[in-house]
Design brief:
Radius of gyration: 47 Å
Bound molecules: ligand C2E, calcium ion
Number of strands: 27
CATH class of the largest domain: Alpha Beta
Number of domains: 4
Number of helices: 27
Distance between the termini: 120 Å
Structural class: alpha/beta
Largest sheet: 8 strands, mixed, barrel
Strand content: 15-25%
């Protein structure tokens, strides 16, 4: 037999030896002893000598065979024979030795101890036989006295027990080694628990009534993440699988479980054992089991402890894996699936959804970030949780609800007609109670039919998103259903954006035109506004009203704005060189440019590079830019002013929301929006917005300019109100820089109104 070498195995051997000295718990189990002899008297004498005897605390069970054949037949049908008393000479002079060969070879019984006996003193088998066939002892039949027999038998039985113990240990270790690899396969705590119980059963060598307790939700998605309960169960407890701890009141092992939990240690009792597998990420795992016999034998206990350390590592792994999985596919706040998981689940069920008329939707909460800023992130979190609850309640159990972005939910459900679709937004009708505040929230939604589209769920979500962007144009609490026309308009927008990008990269197609700004009294130029023009390679010109919003939407406006500013500076230098009188140039700046941390630095660098006098430059920003982040814009404007630039409020009056900011922000000029100029008539001029704006500007000490002046009448009325400068088609359209130079030199002086 192989000797065990490692320390753990040495300990096992130590245990075995200890074990062998103690009476075994399974005291009722008798040692099976087989007597093989063709002499009936030997059988009788042996029975007589051993009758009623106990060896190592266990009784003896004697069996008899009168020939080698009978012995083989018996050994084939009966397992666990500890000792065989074997007559050497039976049918033939070496029939006994032949039988030994068959026992060890053919029957493969290596653990059974064999004591050879012979009636002929002096006739001893060769040493080689004893060694090769692992024979325990050799006795003559004259030594059949009670004492002699008992000594021989006891030492044989001890040897048998030790060998079987070691075999058991070896098998146990083998199954542990195997379990190590098995325990690392499961990817969720439930299947891990099942594998763990199977490993325990194989260690015990019999089915168990066992439960594996742990975190029910594992890394957890649906359900209470903190809830613990029965992950897996076998035997009499099988029905408990999936139950929470609350359901365990009737469970006979519950107090054992509590003890082990409190002690954070294994508890070995009479016929019951509770194994404490430790904590992983704050979640505890325990196994409770009932086993036949009394206490677990030390050997098995030792093996169990080794298995437990495997289980502990495996369990930590599986919980970690579940957490990773959870964070990859779920939103920890609402515990809803995230975008990836939503798409997966939609793809999984798409055929069915398409058949039964399901709809995919995106619900976008309006101004969610404002709520976050105003009431704090915790309030934002509470709001999202409440939206989740309302959506789930409205859409029913079948529906898929997911959080696909910070403030957007994805849904997939079967609506009840068109009303059922629009009713989704009704979850926003009642205000949301957030930390004692009733916060009214609004949303918008885009929907698409769940059809078997070539791109699958991704395509459907894209459609819903497109519908959403159309709904956004219509305003809060609006929704739109996807239509194919929406798609073609997007495609052309994407293409346009690509062309714009390449125009910017190659420097071909983008131009600045300049529209004069004049003093109405003499028609002399005081400035101009730089306005971008894009002429595509095939000669088609694209209006800024078309491509600027697109560029703003995608962020490309930042690069465009940089180019515009630098180009305007260069143009001023060119005009100066050609001898034109100096006039200022207004440059439109987008909100996105102010959001760049190095905006002021870039402006300053462009001024330095071109060598232009900063006093010649005026930045035009709209009210909404000033509104976006007043503190940051104010700081940047002060820095720009310190460089020597001027600042004008563009399109003033459209919102009047920024009246307050007029005081706080260092503006030089207000531009009256052309909408107010358009509506000017002598009849309305006394009581019109343009007049109020002019008054306001004067009271604040700001300059004022009117844009969009198309008629002499508008010009006269504005002049009468006190508006000192004008810009509009009446004086000049936006024009090529060379044309403007001509205009200044030629027309300007002639223009008199
Ligand atoms: P905006 O800043 O309000 O520019 C004035 C717009 O009014 C220009 O349109 C100009 O051509 C037009 N306009 C001037 N006089 C008249 C008039 O008498 N009647 C009428 N009906 N319109 C007049 P444009 O050039 O199409 O620009 C449209 C908008 O595009 C601009 O409005 C501005 O918001 C944006 N934009 C143009 N160039 C740039 C730029 O370089 N950067 C940025 N960020 N935006 C620009
Ligand atoms: Ca402007
Ligand atoms: Ca304007």
């Amino acid at each position: 037999m192989n000797m065990l070498v490692s320390t753990a195995q040495d300990e096992l051997v130590a245990f075995l030896e200890e074990d062998a000295r103690q009476p075994l718990p399974q005291a009722s189990l008798a040692w099976k002893v087989l007597i093989v002899d063709d002499d009936p008297e030997v059988h009788q004498a042996t029975v007589f000598a051993l009758k009623g005897q106990h060896v190592c605390g266990r009784p003896l069970d004697l069996f008899h065979a009168n020939s080698a054949e009978e012995a083989v037949a018996f050994l084939r049908s009966t397992a666990g024979v500890a000792v065989i008393f074997l007559d050497v000479v039976m049918e033939s002079h070496d029939a006994g030795l032949e039988l030994v060969r068959r026992i060890r070879g053919e029957l493969g019984l290596m653990e059974t101890r064999i004591i050879l006996r012979t009636g002929q003193p002096g006739y001893a088998p060769e040493m080689s036989v004893i060694r090769d066939y692992d024979i325990n002892d050799y006795r003559t039949k004259s030594e059949l006295t009670h004492t002699r027999l008992m000594t021989t038998l006891t030492s044989a039985i001890r040897a048998f027990e030790q060998i079987t113990g070691l075999t058991e240990a070896r098998n146990g270790l083998a199954s542990l080694a195997e379990s190590g690899s098995k325990l690392f396969i499961p990817r969720d705590s439930r299947s891990f628990a099942e594998v763990a119980l199977r490993q325990l059963e194989s260690l015990f060598g019999s089915p168990l009534d066992a439960v594996f307790c742990g975190p029910l939700a594992g890394g957890g998605c649906e359900g209470d993440p903190e809830a613990s309960g029965i992950l897996a169960a076998t035997g009499a407890h099988a029905a408990l699988a999936g139950e929470g701890f609350d359901g365990l009141v009737q469970f006979p092992l519950v107090s054992l479980l509590r003890t082990a939990r409190a002690a954070q240690a294994h508890v070995f009792g009479e016929g019951v054992t509770c194994l404490y597998l430790g904590r992983a990420h704050g979640k505890e795992a325990l196994v409770c089991l009932q086993h036949p016999g009394g206490e677990i034998r030390p050997l098995v206990r030792q093996l169990i402890e080794i298995l437990c350390s495997n289980l502990r590592v495996g369990f930590e792994n599986v919980v970690l894996f579940e957490r990773l999985h959870f964070y990859a596919y779920y939103d920890p706040l609402t515990r809803l699936p995230n975008r990836t998981r939503f798409l997966d689940r939609m793809d999984e069920g798409l055929a069915g959804f398409a058949e039964s008329g399901w709809t995919v939707g995106i619900i976008d909460i309006v101004r969610f970030s404002e709520l976050n800023d105003a009431l704090g992130h915790r309030s934002g979190d509470l709001l999202l949780i409440e939206v989740t609850r309302r959506l789930k309640a409205r859409l029913g159990r079948e529906a898929l609800v997911a959080r696909i972005a910070g403030d957007a939910f994805g849904i997939c459900w079967r609506p009840d007609g068109e009303e059922g679709v629009s009713a989704v937004l009704d979850v926003f009708l009642a205000p949301f109670l957030v930390r004692g505040h009733a916060v009214p929230m609004r949303a918008r939604a885009g929907f698409a039919h769940a059809v078997l589209a070539p791109g699958g769920a991704v395509e459907l979500l894209k459609r819903a998103n497109l519908a959403l962007s159309h709904a956004k144009l219509e305003g809060d609490q609006h929704w739109r259903f996807f239509s194919s026309e929406m798609e073609s308009s997007t495609q052309s927008r994407v293409q346009l954006l690509n062309e714009l990008r390449s125009a910017l990269n190659t420097g071909k197609g983008l131009e600045l035109h300049y529209q004069p700004q004049v003093l109405p009294t003499n028609g002399c130029i005081v400035g101009c506004e730089a306005l971008i023009r894009w002429i595509k390679p095939e000669g088609e010109s694209v209006a800024p009203d078309v491509f600027i919003p697109l560029a703003e939407y995608t962020g490309l406006i930042v690069e465009i704005g940089d180019w515009v500013f630098a180009e305007a500076c260069r143009q001023i230098v060119r005009w100066d060189r050609s001898g034109l009188p100096p006039f200022r140039v207004g440059i439109n700046i987008s909100a996105a440019q102010f959001r760049e941390v190095d905006f002021v630095a870039k402006i300053s660098a462009a001024i330095e590079n071109s060598g232009v006098d900063p006093a010649r430059l005026e930045l035009e920003i709209t009210e909404s830019v000033a509104m976006e982040d007043p503190d940051s814009v104010a700081r940047q404007l002060h820095e720009l002013k310190a460089l020597g630039l001027r600042v004008a409020v563009d399109d003033f009056g459209c919102g009047f929301s920024s009246l307050g900011s007029l005081n706080r922000l260092p503006f030089d000029r207000i531009k009256i929006d052309r909408a107010f100029v358009r509506e000017l008539t002598p009849a309305t001029s006394q009581d019109c917005i343009a007049r109020i704006i002019v008054k306001l500007a004067k009271s604040l000490g700001l300059d004022v300019i009117a844009e969009g002046v198309e008629t002499v009448e508008q010009s006269r009325l504005l002049e009468e109100m006190g508006c000192s400068e004008m810009q509009g088609f009446l004086y000049g359209r936006p024009m090529h820089p060379d044309a403007l130079a001509g205009w200044v030199g030629g027309n300007a002086g002639a223009l008199r109104i």
